[in-house]
């Protein structure tokens, strides 16, 4: 729907159409060459600049300025190492180039020749050439190290984005926001053996005259945002869906057979969504591409989705089916909401994400059953509750409330990846709650209305704001709800969307026999992290002897008591069938219950109508009745969790009955088996009869309906030694017998997951070793116990068999690696990190690598091995598989090598500097990985400065006026921002009249010119995340008048990292033969800066610049990415006279003297006996004032030195890390 906010209002033009042409792809060099053409319609007659998004990491061929503050977040004070400092700059850096606020990395100044036509609001085109060499973000090359052509080696590439991250700018110039829609023409040229897949309809495939390459032409007529554009190129095998010809599947060579089986059901998802929404699929085609080394398992785009090859499976695999089909169905749902109907801005992301997840949940409910759906909802609710309780609340609308996390939630590229993952789940739960409020039928009508308006809007030709209905915002969604249903949902949004946290209830009850009532008490815990105060209705269900009864209460206070009158009376010895909530009547053994109470069990919010956590107290026999006779899987799951704390024969019987009941949901039976193992351990002294699982396993073995129960039942045999650290011999022999007699040769289904579970069960039987080793001797197989030796032999046999006959996804190898690590931790094997490092190398299957890295992280924590830790960090920085890097970092976060404030050999300054450099600059190409490092930094050191670092003396400032000691923010304080004026050319009047006539077909190509010979542009990192000093209006006017418009826009993008680039960043090695004239942008900035600091400008300024690779030290020449020759000595000694009183940490001497004298007088009046003491304090304060005077002069001198290094910079910025709260909305950079 049309956005009511200011997002579009801040951009003075509209993008009508964009052409993306990929001219050449080189897999050997991993490079791409192409160009884009943007058709722009101005909205204001005085449009002079166009800001676009692009990411460039090396040299440019044309003359222009470029600002990408994400290349290095903190560029000023290298001594700062606290996370809050970094996150403030991180947010500012992302905001200054955020296209939602009208900003971008490149600002194109339109030539004067175009001004007359722009004043008439006529459209024009901007053409940009670009190239990428070995890109590290946005696009990924998979190039196996084999012999042969790229097609023979199955080389391929694909683009990607991370959750909500708009990363299209990483591989082609665009306006990288979901709110800027346009039509697309995409041309991709590849060699003959390759196939190019992209968004839109395939118009034609043209063979080039050289017969060595061909061009694929795609056209997307539906208005689509740049983040929803993707491509994939490779030697794909093509499969047209036999049930739905509009759907096409692509896979790598030799995978067609399993592709047919995996995708054979996809037409059912389309039919379900179209029937449910009463609306056709919004696009004319749909493509599924399966690639290797995928960034995420499912990455949806307009008319196509990129999947991981690991999701493919044959008909012999059962365990993978549900996961794969769920992901594919979710991808189709995101075609409706997410790609076709996209979010208007980041605060509206919860709507598109939540609706897509809600529709996917309804598909699961329809295809896999209501039990699977409710179990999924319960699982997601538990994950949300745990995260909010452990980390902090998740607010769906970040514009409504400030978060308390160590990261900012206001921007999609600054949030933690784990936060983004839980954000999706919470959005789904809130949409489900909304469905309960208004009803599923009305909600579906609302979604149908949204799609109908979007389809009607997308079919219109381009006019201003005609495509607004294809953007979904919270305000427009509220209006549609009010129109369709007549209900006001604003209170619901204020409670669950604008606030963070979930409700936390603690309940207990007492039965009053005289009054025949249940006295229920419900409390809310508001002190816990992530808690939300809930005010509203709450449903309580009581199962009585005469049936189930629902009661709704109004929760208003933190502690509320209710009296519930029972409908039944105690029967004592009367026997009668008891009706359940499903209408079924069952016989129950009531001997365990209270003879005077008719209550069987009680539940709070049994239908999961709220996002809540319930802790309820009731007798154990009630939990047992609830587990055995309640038919809802969520209620059964809650009962199992409670019975874990009530080990007794009655609990054992209740769990056994559920486990043996084939009519129970299989996941409930699995949970019962796991709980039964824990109960058996707690009852080890009183347990009678054979071990718990052996009898049950023999009963259900061979049952087709108990497949998963059998697999997990075998795993549950192992934990029977936790209490006594002793494994019963019969249990161990039973598990070894399962290995010996397992024969799956006549089964058409694979048993690889079952064999993996047997290895897990065997590993669970391992107990700590009690071995006496002589001096100078190490562990060997001779010192192993009999049980450990047999387990090791079985693991070795399985690993060797895996190398010859690998199973699906190497699940057996994964279990073997975990078992070996358990043997090491229990002292049976010597810890050897090299073993896991070999399995973690690039080229090994992804699941095996992830498991090996998990074991390696555990080795690092237990053995404190710095070499292994730094090897792991090297892998995270340089490995090609970005998903493995992401998982490795999450493993370090979940299992950190040391705790916060802990004295540990790994807790060193080198590690701090390494992590700081990684998140500051090294991982600039991957915001997901950068935020992962920030999470690890927070886990290890918190939000303050790490304790292992020594605080420099000059970093602490004593503020006499406020009587505080605080960290010096940097060189320039925040108050200096008011001294700088904005460039007049940046002030766009967004409220200009839009009554101009419709533009004709006449267009101007502002690129059709030739470059200057003498002028050279610099590609460089941004000096700051925003501007501090801008050229005055007069100088800029003079600059524009002398500007030569005959310059060609030719942008060359390079994807290499900053560490690998040359120190010299100038595109031309020649220096100007003549002094720089006043019309130069260099002198314009230098002159203005010289006026400000009182320094005369130099006549000659060197164009070539360099930057230092060492970002860990603060110096005048190391932290500036773009440097010039040093200033004269006089520049260093000169001091500006206008800085007095600007520094927040330094007050005026006069005002300080007045404050001091006033306080001295008050103290004299109060206590005259200590006059000499006051005089002494006065002299001390005078000394402090003198120190502050010196400090002020030193600060000014350091500012002068700091600014000298930026005289030749062509950007109107000053590298000051202290100013980040009130940054200008956009940088001053031009392409000329």
From TrEMBL:
The source organism is: Mytilus coruscus
Q: Write down what this protein is called.
A: Transcription initiation factor TFIID subunit 2
Q: What is one GO biological process annotated to this record?
A: RNA polymerase II preinitiation complex assembly
**Residue ranges annotated for the Peptidase M1 membrane alanine aminopeptidase domain, each copy included:** 267-458
Major subcellular site: nucleus
Q: Name one Pfam family in it.
A: Peptidase_M1
Q: Which InterPro entries does the UniProt entry name for this protein?
A: Aminopeptidase_N-like_N_sf, Ig-like_TAF2, Peptidase_M1_dom, Peptidase_M4/M1_CTD_sf, TAF2, TPR_TAF2_C
> What residue stretches are annotated with the Transcription initiation factor TFIID subunit 2 Ig-like domain?
500-619
Q: Name one GO cellular component term.
A: transcription factor TFIID complex
Domain of life according to the entry: Eukaryota
Q: Which family does it belong to?
A: Belongs to the TAF2 family.
UniProt keywords, alphabetically:
Nucleus, Transcription, Transcription regulation
Compositional bias per record (Low complexity), positions renumbered to this chain: 1117-1137
| Compartment annotation | Nucleus
* Coiled-coil ranges from the UniProt annotation: none
The keyword Transcription regulation is annotated on this UniProt entry: yes
Give the Transcription initiation factor TFIID subunit 2 TPR repeats domain ranges: 620-967
Compositionally biased intervals (Basic residues): 1156-1176
Name the residue ranges with Basic and acidic residues bias: 1177-1192, 1200-1209
Q: In the record, what terms sit under GO molecular function?
A: chromatin binding; metallopeptidase activity; RNA polymerase II general transcription initiation factor activity; transcription cis-regulatory region binding; zinc ion binding
Q: Which parts of the sequence are annotated with region: Disordered?
A: 1056-1081, 1103-1137, 1150-1232
């Amino acid at each position: 729907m049309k956005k009511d906010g200011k997002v579009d209002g801040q951009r003075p033009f509209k993008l009508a159409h964009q052409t993306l042409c990929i001219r050449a792809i080189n897999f050997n060099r991993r490079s791409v060459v192409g160009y884009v053409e943007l058709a722009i319609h101005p909205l204001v007659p005085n449009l002079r600049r166009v800001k676009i998004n692009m990411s460039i990491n090396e040299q440019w061929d044309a003359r222009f300025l470029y600002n990408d503050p994400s290349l290095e977040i903190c560029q000023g004070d290298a001594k700062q190492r606290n996370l809050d400092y970094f996150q403030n700059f991180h947010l500012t850096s992302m905001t200054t180039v955020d296209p939602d606020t009208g900003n971008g990395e490149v600002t194109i100044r339109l030539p004067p020749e175009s001004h007359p036509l722009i004043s008439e609001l006529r459209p024009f085109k901007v053409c940009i050439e670009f190239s990428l060499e070995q890109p590290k973000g946005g696009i990924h090359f998979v190039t196996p190290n084999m012999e042969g052509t790229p097609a023979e080696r199955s080389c391929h590439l694909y683009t990607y984005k991370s959750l909500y991250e708009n990363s299209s700018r990483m591989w082609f110039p665009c306006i990288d926001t979901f709110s800027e829609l346009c039509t697309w023409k995409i041309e991709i040229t590849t060699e003959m053996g390759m196939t190019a897949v992209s968004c839109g309809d395939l118009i034609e495939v043209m063979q080039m005259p050289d017969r060595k390459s061909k061009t694929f032409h795609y056209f997307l007529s539906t208005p689509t945002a740049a983040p929803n554009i993707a491509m994939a190129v490779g030697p794909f095998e093509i499969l047209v869906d036999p049930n739905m010809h509009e759907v096409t599947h692509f896979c790598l060579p030799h995978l067609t057979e399993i592709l047919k089986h995996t995708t054979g059901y996809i037409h059912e998802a389309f039919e379900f969504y179209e029937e449910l929404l009463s609306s056709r699929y919004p696009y004319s085609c749909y493509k599924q591409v399966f690639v290797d080394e995928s960034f995420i398992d499912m990455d949806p785009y307009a008319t196509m989705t990129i999947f991981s090859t690991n999701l493919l499976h044959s008909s012999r695999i059962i365990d993978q089916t549900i996961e794969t089909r769920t992901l594919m169905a979710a991808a189709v749902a995101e075609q409706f909401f997410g790609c076709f109907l996209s979010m208007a801005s980041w605060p509206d992301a919860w709507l598109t994400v939540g609706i897509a997840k809600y529709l996917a949940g309804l598909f699961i409910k329809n295809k896999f059953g209501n039990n699977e759906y409710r179990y999924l909802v319960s699982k997601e609710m538990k994950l949300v509750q745990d995260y909010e309780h452990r980390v902090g609340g998740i607010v769906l609308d970040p514009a409504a409330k400030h978060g308390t996390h160590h990261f900012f939630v206001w921007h999609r590229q600054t949030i933690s990846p784990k936060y983004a993952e839980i954000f999706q789940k919470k959005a789904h739960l809130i949409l489900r709650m909304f469905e309960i409020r208004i009803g599923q039928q009305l909600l579906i009508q609302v979604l149908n209305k949204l799609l109908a308006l979007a389809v009607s809007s997308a079919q219109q030709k381009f006019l201003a704001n005609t495509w607004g209905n294809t953007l979904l915002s919270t305000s427009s969604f509220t209006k549609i709800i009010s129109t369709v249903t007549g209900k006001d949902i604003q209170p619901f949004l204020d409670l669950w969307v604008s606030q963070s946290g979930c409700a936390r209830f603690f309940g207990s009850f007492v039965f009053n026999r005289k009054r025949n009532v249940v006295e229920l008490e419900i409390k809310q815990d508001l002190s816990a992290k992530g808690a939300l105060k809930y005010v509203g209705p709450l449903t309580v269900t009581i199962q009585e002897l005469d049936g189930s009864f629902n009661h709704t209460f109004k929760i208003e206070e933190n502690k509320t008591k209710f009296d519930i009158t029972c409908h039944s009376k105690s029967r004592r010895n009367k026997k009668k069938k008891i009706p359940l909530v499903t209408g079924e009547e069952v016989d129950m053994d009531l001997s365990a219950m209270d003879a005077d109470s008719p209550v069987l069990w009680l539940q709070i919010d049994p239908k999961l109508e709220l996002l809540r956590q319930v802790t309820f107290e009731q007798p154990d026999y009630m939990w047992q009745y609830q587990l055995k006779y309640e038919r809802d899987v969520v209620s059964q799951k809650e009962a199992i969790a409670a019975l874990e704390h009530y080990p007794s024969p009655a609990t054992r019987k209740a769990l056994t009955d559920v486990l043996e009941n084939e009519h129970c949901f299989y996941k409930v039976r699995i949970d019962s088996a796991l709980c039964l193992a824990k109960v058996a351990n707690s009852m080890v002294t009183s347990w009678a009869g054979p071990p718990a699982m052996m009898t049950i396993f023999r009963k259900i073995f061979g049952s087709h309906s108990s497949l998963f129960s059998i697999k997990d039942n075998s795993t549950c045999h192992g934990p029977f030694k936790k209490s006594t650290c002793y494994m019963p011999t019969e249990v161990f022999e039973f598990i070894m017998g399962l290995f010996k007699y397992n024969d799956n040769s006549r089964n058409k289904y694979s048993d690889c997951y079952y064999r993996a579970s047997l290895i897990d069960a065997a590993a669970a039987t391992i107990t700590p070793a009690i071995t006496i080793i002589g001096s100078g001797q190490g562990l060997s197989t001779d010192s192993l116990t009999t049980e450990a030796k047999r387990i090791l032999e079985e693991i070795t046999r399985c690993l060797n068999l895996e190398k010859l006959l690998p199973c699906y996804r190497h699940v057996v190898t994964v279990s073997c690696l975990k078992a070996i690590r358990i043997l090491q931790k229990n002292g049976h094997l010597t810890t050897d990190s090299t073993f896991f490092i070999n399995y973690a190398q690039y080229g090994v299957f992804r699941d095996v690598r992830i498991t090996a890295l998990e074991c390696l992280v555990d080795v690092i924590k237990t053995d404190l091995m710095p070499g292994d830790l730094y090897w792991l960090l090297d892998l995270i920085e340089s490995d090609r598989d970005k998903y493995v890097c992401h998982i490795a970092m999450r493993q370090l976060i979940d299992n950190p090598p040391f705790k916060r404030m802990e004295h540990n050999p790994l807790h060193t300054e080198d590690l701090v500097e390494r992590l700081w450099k990684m998140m500051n600059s090294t991982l600039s190409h991957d915001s997901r990985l950068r935020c992962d490092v920030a999470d690890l930094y927070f886990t290890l050191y918190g939000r303050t400065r790490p304790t292992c670092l020594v605080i420099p003396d000059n970093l602490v400032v004593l503020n006499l006026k406020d009587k505080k000691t605080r960290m010096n923010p940097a060189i320039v304080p925040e108050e200096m921002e008011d001294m700088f004026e904005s460039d007049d050319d940046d002030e766009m009047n967004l409220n200009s009249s839009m009554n101009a006539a419709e533009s004709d077909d006449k267009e101007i190509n502002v690129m059709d010119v030739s470059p200057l010979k003498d002028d050279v542009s610099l590609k460089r990192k941004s000096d700051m995340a925003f501007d501090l000093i801008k050229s005055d209006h007069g100088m800029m006017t003079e600059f524009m008048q002398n500007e030569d418009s005959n310059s060609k826009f030719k942008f060359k993008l390079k994807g290499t990292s900053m560490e690998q680039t040359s120190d010299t960043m100038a595109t031309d090695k020649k220096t100007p033969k003549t002094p720089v004239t006043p019309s130069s942008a260099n002198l314009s900035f230098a002159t203005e800066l010289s006026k400000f600091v009182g320094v005369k400008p130099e006549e000659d300024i060197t164009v070539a610049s360099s930057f230092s690779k060492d970002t860990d030290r603060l110096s005048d020449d190391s932290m500036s990415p773009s440097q010039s020759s040093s200033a004269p000595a006089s520049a260093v000694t000169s001091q500006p006279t206008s800085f007095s009183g600007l520094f927040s940490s330094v007050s005026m001497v006069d005002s300080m003297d007045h404050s001091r004298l006033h306080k001295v007088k008050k103290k004299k009046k109060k206590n005259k006996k200590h006059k000499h003491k006051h005089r002494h304090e006065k002299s001390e304060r005078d000394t402090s004032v003198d120190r502050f005077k010196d400090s002020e002069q030193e600060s000014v001198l350091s500012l002068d030195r700091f600014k000298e290094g930026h005289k030749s910079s062509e950007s109107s910025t000053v590298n000051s890390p202290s100013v980040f709260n009130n940054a200008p909305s956009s940088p001053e950079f031009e392409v000329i």
